[in-house]
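Here comes a specimen:
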Amino acid sequence: MTARRYDYLLSALPGLDTFGANPPMSKQDLLDRLSEAEGPVQTVQVLLLMDDLVQREAIMSGELPADQAGFSVLSEVDADNIPVLPAYLLPESGSENQDTARLNVDAIWRTFFMHAWATAQRSGSPFLKAWVKFEVGLRNALAATRAHALELDPLAYQVTPELADSSADFASALAAWSSALDPLSALEALDKARWEWMEDNSKWYSFQAQELEAYAAKLVLLHRWRRLQTD
């Protein structure tokens, strides 16, 4: 089957050419446009959901005021104004109401990446498959570096290692992260590595779903970076 083209939709979207630039549109606006044009909503929702989970975690740790968050997939909040997780992200051995917030963090990310991989498989999205493998690999490489520095077992901090890209080389990204002079610069080094990967793994001017998915992933990074700069 020939892949569907989204020439008009992509030509109407503002450009995303520079890492660190102000986001030209909201994540919800992008999702609404995709819905109206019958675009790849399910795969893009996965990419936007990751940013929602990052913000949810920041709210729970006190790093981000709840009224400053911008969610596009998670919509319902509990009595403490914490976004409620959908059923497919709840850890199998517990529930949202249990007082195991820190313990559940890794379990939530595990279920998220498994959900992302299943969505990629079901939709046949090559970009989402590659993105999951890259993101899991980068996160686990970072966790292993931190564990070694603290003389801890790195295997205890790996999340869905079976989904990681075993051939990827994260040495330069980790070197830039570890040599950064401050936490903000360290986070910038990681997000720049993500941006460069998206540039290298996107079929620009293909006007197909993969290009829209890459656009969404880059838009998420711009919004994340704006929040970090504001903080």
About this structure: The mean pLDDT is 88. The chain has one domain: 7-230. The first helix runs from residue 7 to 12. The chain has eight helices and no strands.
